[in-house]
Amino acid sequence: GKLGRYPPWPGKIVNPPKDLKKPRGKKCFFVKFFGTEDHAWIKVEQLKPYHPHKEEMIKINKGKRFQQAVDAVEEFLRKTKGKDQASSHNSTEEKNRRNSSEERGKQSTGEEKRKASLSEGKVKKGTGEGKKRVSSVSSERGSKSPLKRAQDQSPRKRGRPPKDEKDLTIPESSTVKRVMTGTVAGFKWPPSVSEPVKDSDPHFHHFLLSQTEKPAVCYQAITKKLKVCEEETGSTSIQAADSTAVNGSITPTDKKIGFLGLGLMGSGIVSNLLKMGHTVTVWNRTAEKCDLFIQEGARLGRTPAEVVSTCDITFACVSDPKAAKDLVLGPSGVLQGIRPGKCYVDMSTVDADTVTELAQVIVSRGGRFLEAPVSGNQQLSNDGMLVILAAGDRGLYEDCSSCFQAMGKTSFFLGEVGNAAKMMLIVNMVQGSFMATIAEGLTLAQVTGQSQQTLLDILNQGQLASIFLDQKCQNILQGNFKPDFYLKYIQKDLRLAIALGDSVNHPTPMAAAANEVYKRAKALDQSDNDMSAVYRAYIH
């Protein structure tokens, strides 16, 4: 049947009619959707395992038809259980997160439909990891229907072994749309929503901000790298980037990539771009830092202007607003290399005014601009597990798809320039305030005769338990403040977040108090230590 953009839907892979030609290009499977008479060619990237996503999808899709489809899946599984496990593997559940209340959107042409149908799950074939994958529907360019694919854990070619089932789930990577689209009648996307992104790494999630009447909704994907979040902020929904991942591997863009700034974050990012096969030219203010990457296959750029002029897309990741402006506007800076069509992606955490100014000067020269600050630390950067917050040129966001998949686990597109800067400052404000609170608690425990280790053990058994809490407490208990996130930078982010509150007359008393503690830590020469060294500001 004709498929528009729908929520994820369960389906199973079947043999196509003999007279039906397989679409050219990417690998697809012919899928029949449970509870309907719909069939479609679905790309392997758009399939997700049924069982891991079942409960989640049931919560999202309340309609009778969806329940009937789930009942049909369960009946099918009961019948085939004990018969042939392989066949059950071939059913992947299409459980993607999407709003079931969306109207049915435009119908896509045949090939587009096929592409769009299941952007969420990539079903991988091959070595024994094949799991059932639910494809979440997010059409690449006209959504398609989701499927349920039952392949048992397929291998991931991503370079990192899957850590658990979550890693195997297919990313909602393409955009939010993909994640939520399905084949069921009655679920449609508003006409304002634009097409979703192209194939993506099954472990990378793209979150889109679709600006419609609804407030932003994020759908969190469970896999390593793909989440699609749809936020509604404007007139169109942004789709994920356009890279292709086959059987879990990333197909690097053929565009030439430039990278400026090889600090704690930039170094890990460049390393992962190179590992995934991108062509990268690097530049750093202190050139010695480039040597390691030259050995790994990167090219050396002599100035920012030269890198921009010789590359298609240039990324930058520097310390603060002043450094970001100097890099663009200074001698032999980025702006001197900008010509019509050149692309610049600033990954620095700065304030919205700074990034807006940089966007204006880049665009005034015919360039394309995207802000893409990252949430994470050195370890997450090295592991390719950053969270990327992007805003600006949506087409450029899509062009960066393979790069974002190489460096991050999740990508959010937040609309117009300035939105990502604001969101990033808010995220780091929360993180910095929490870090100061942890340090305050640990020192109070110490001075009142309580065991700091026992406090950590208690916190780790409660609702505050997190990797961040555990790692930062371990740093403090071991006296190891080797920087994973510089203390001076979290203080800078708190300062900028407080200024953001000032600009809208919004109180930020918690951040203001935390900021004072970090300033004391800086006065105690802790700037170049990890943010956990804020602990030392509390020691009498």
Distance between the termini: 72 Å
Share of β-strand residues? 15-25%
What is the architecture of the domain at 235-415 at the second tier of CATH? 3-Layer(aba) Sandwich
Per DSSP, the total helix count is: 20
What is the average of the pLDDT values?
76
What's the CATH superfamily of the domain at 235-415, by name?
NAD(P)-binding Rossmann-like Domain
Q: Low-confidence spans: pLDDT under 50, at least 5 residues? A: 1-5, 85-199, 210-247
Largest sheet: 12 strands, mixed
What top-tier CATH class of the domain at 235-415 fits best? Alpha Beta
Report a brief summary of the structure.
Helix content is 37%, strand content 16%.
Keywords:
4-stranded antiparallel β-sheet; 20 helices; 6PGD_dom2; alpha/beta; chromosome; 12-stranded mixed β-sheet; N-(1-d-carboxylethyl)-l-norvaline Dehydrogenase, domain 2; DNA binding; globular; 21 strands; SH3 type barrels; 540 residues; Rossmann fold; 37% helix
Mind explaining what this structure looks like?
Among the domains are: 9-80, SH3 type barrels, CATH 2.30.30; 235-415, 3-Layer(aba) Sandwich (Rossmann fold), CATH 3.40.50; 422-535, N-(1-d-carboxylethyl)-l-norvaline Dehydrogenase, domain 2 (Orthogonal Bundle). Helix 16 packs across helix 19, helix 17 packs antiparallel against helix 18 and helix 19 packs antiparallel against helix 20. With 540 residues, the chain is an alpha/beta fold. The strands form 4 sheets. Strands 8, 9, 10, 13, 14, 15, 16, 17, 18, 19, 20 and 21 form a 12-stranded mixed β-sheet that branches. A 4-stranded antiparallel β-sheet has the order 3-2-1-5. It is 37% helix and 16% strand.
